[in-house]
Amino acid sequence: xxxxxxxxxxxxxxxxxxxxxxxxxxxxxxxxxxxxxxxxxxxxxxxxxxxxxxxxxxxxxxxxxxxxxxxxxxxxxxxxxxxxxxxxxxxxxxxxxxxxxxxxxxxxxxxxxxxxxxxxxxxxxxxxxxxxxxxxxxxxxxxxxxxxxxxxxxxxxxxxxxxxxxxxxxxxxxxxxxxxxxxxxxxxxxxxxxxxxxxxxxxxxxxxxxxxxxxxxxxxxxxxxxxxxxxxxxxxxxxxxxxxxxxxxxxxxxxxxxxxxxxxxxxxxxxxxxxxxxxxxxxxxxxxxxxxxxxxxxxxxxxxxxxxxxxxxxxxxxxxxxxxxxxxxxxxxxxxxxxxxxxxxxxxxxxxxxxxxxxxxxxxxxxxxxxxxxxxxxxxxxxxxxxxxxxxxxxxxxxxxxxxxxxxxxxxxxxx
Length: 416
Ligand SMILES: [Cu+2]
Fold this sequence. Notes:
Blueprint: H1 2-16, H2 18-30, E1 41-45, E2 62-63, E3 66-70, E4 74-78, E5 88-91, E6 95-101, E7 110-114, E8 119-124, E9 132-138, E10 150-154, E11 158-160, E12 164-171, E13 179-184, E14 190-196, E15 203-209, E16 218-226, E17 230-239, E18 249-251, E19 256-260, E20 266-268, E21 273-276, E22 280-282, E23 285-287, E24 292-294, E25 297-306, E26 312-323, H3 334-342, H4 348-360, H5 382-392, H6 398-410
Parallel strand pairs: 1-4, 3-9, 11-17, 19-26
Antiparallel strand pairs: 1-2, 4-7, 5-6, 5-8, 8-9, 10-12, 12-15, 13-14, 13-16, 16-17, 18-21, 20-24, 21-22, 23-25, 25-26
Helix pairs in contact: 1-2, 3-5, 5-6
This protein binds copper (II) ion (CU).
């Protein structure tokens, strides 16, 4: 603790020299300044009090400015500042009264004095007369309630993994002791205990990092205890980050049967969708891809998708491409019907109706494609009509015309 350090400081100084002085200034400058009412009181000069100005601050030039102690308490005057000061009983106007005097106290040095009688004792620094302080010695000091109201806050009401909880507040009276803090998780189990200083301006602050001990969601509480009697409580919610461990779902087509006249196989189009409980609709990747050439026989199409948390799903379906060895049978007089369409004597719908009628009644035989998985726009492409025109004029073969009809079947424009 700070007191012990101050008591030993002279010895350290004498034995270790300059390096120790530098070390000690550093240590003292980061050591919080407290008064310990029960075990003794330490009074220090405010940092930089060698220049005027501290007398206008809330803390004044000696900290604490007013030290309340009981009879028999030993006060330690410790020079934690970077310049020499004196702690001299009396006041700047009347001068030293001879009760106590540290004389010129160098940086890092301390001086102790025990107050044996009640009274109000003023003191000052001879070198810097704007520095004044008061010591109140009270015979009943130990019987006084060591009680302080506490106001306790957290910077937020809700936290999640990785957050730092800022805890801060004020006390009505500085008891000169450490404040203790306890964090409880839902169910009341203590997961953290900490001790920290109350500052000389009656405020306190500390931080709690949410770590592995924050392992359930719910309402956590922070309790601070200050002195033997008083405590305050603040609650906050904690939620773990939600982790997506559920894989996405692939929505697959049924197995497909495709007929073709082409010995190379058939172009097969299909559609695969993927959804995820967290990420919504996802992209999927299939091999072989939709719209590629499938050779005659069975092909397993394997599809895969990933959600944004790296969970994956994999599914497959079968595409069977069947070679239709029979040649398309299209009676010659159908050319006449194609000619009607070509010359706009019948419209698209009538042509489709005619072809459908002839397929259904086995007058025309074309390869069939089941469950193509694609939705047609219902519009007959120009090239199909061109084919019909050319075929009616004997400019293209029956097979070429049949491939146009096959396209219409696959698109669902002609249903069979
Ligand atoms: Cu001084």
